[in-house]
Amino acid sequence: MRAVTVLVGTAVLGLLPTAASAAPLPVPGLPAVPAVPAAPAADLGFDVSHPQCDTPLPTGADFGVVGVNGGVATTVNPCLVDQLRWADSTTGDVPGQPALQVYVNTANPGHLQEEISTWPRSGDSPYGPCTGANDTACSWVYGQIRASVDIHGFLLPAARAAGVDVVPAELVWWLDVETMNTWQSGSAAALAANRAALEGMHDYLATTGARVGLYSTSQQWQQIVGLVPPGSSLYELDSWLAGALSRSEAQLHCADAPLVAGGSVVLSQYVVERDGRPLDHDLPC
Q1: Fewer Cβ within 10 Å of end Cβ, the chain: N or C?
Q2: Is the distance from CB of 24 to CB of 42 less than 8 angstroms?
Q3: In terms of Cα–Cα distance, which of 231, 260, 230, 226 is closest to 126?
C-alpha cells in the first residue's frame, strides 16, 4: 500500500492512505485534501494458456507467462500464436522477470508404456541406457524428448507465425508440475522416475542456456516428486508457487519454503476475478 504525504516546509500535515477505508486528518487553515484513489498494483504479471483462448487477454501487464501446451504435455496450446504476441507486448519493467516467459506441462506416463506411442524405446541418459522399460533412464529420455518437442515442434513455429523474435535460450521456462497430469505413484521408485522425467526436461532446456524454474504447490510437489537430493539438476531451481487467492496471500507465500532446497521463491501466483473471469496473477517476490 502506498501513501501520499502532504508537506509544508518540513512539517508533515497529513497522511493519506490510498485505500478508501481512511480519510485524511483535517488541518486548520488549509482546505480539505481530497481522497487519493487506489493506484493499480505495480510489478504484476499474468499467466495465460488454452483456457483463455476465447477471452480478452489482460492489459497493463509487466510480464506474461504463456503456456506452450494444451493442458497435456504432448499437445500444443491452440492459441499460442496470439498469446505469444500478447506477452511480447508487455512492459518487461520488473527486474529479473522478462516480458515473455513460457511454461510447459510435464508428466511421466511410464506405467502406461504399452498404451502410448510417446514412450521412448532407446536413448542415453545419466541413469544409463533406455531400453523401453519403465525406469529412471527412460523417464529421463521421455522428459528430454518432451522439452525438444516443446521448443522445435510447438514454440518456434508459433513464434514465427506470431512475428515474435523468440530465442529459447533467452526465455524463462517454467516446468508446470501438477497432479492433474499423468504421473507414477505409490513407491519411492515412482517418485524417482517422476524426478528423472523433470530432470530430462530441465537438462535439455539448460543445454540451450535457458533459465528453468519449477511451478507447483508444496503439496503437489511432495506427492509427485518428493525430496530432491543435492545431486539432482533440479536442486537449485527457483520456484513459482501457486495456491493463493489474493495479492496479500501471495505476498505471504513469497516467504514459504521453495520447492527444492537449493532454490528461491521468485514468483507467487494468485487467482482473482478480472472483468468477471478468474485470472492468474503473478507477483514477483
Answers
A1: N
A2: no
A3: 231
Look at the block and give the residue holding cell 516467459.
101
Distance of CA 196 to the CA centre of its chain: 20
Tracing cell 495465460 back to the chain, one arrives at 48
Going residue by residue through the chain, which has 285 residues, state the pLDDT in tens, using 9 for 90 and above: 323 222 223 332 232 232 333 333 333 333 332 322 222 456 799 999 999 998 999 998 999 999 999 999 999 999 999 999 999 999 999 998 999 999 999 999 999 988 999 999 999 999 999 999 999 999 999 999 999 999 999 999 999 999 999 999 999 999 999 999 999 999 999 999 999 999 999 999 999 999 999 999 999 999 999 999 999 999 999 999 999 999 999 999 999 999 999 999 999 999 998 777 889 999 999
- Distance of CA 285 to CAs 60, 91, 95, 204, 271, Å? 19, 18, 11, 27, 16
Residue found by looking up cell 487553515 in the block: 29
Cα separation, 177 vs 165, whole angstroms: 27
Cα–Cα distance for residue pair 151/86, rounded to 1 Å:
19
Q: What is the pTM of this model?
A: 0.84
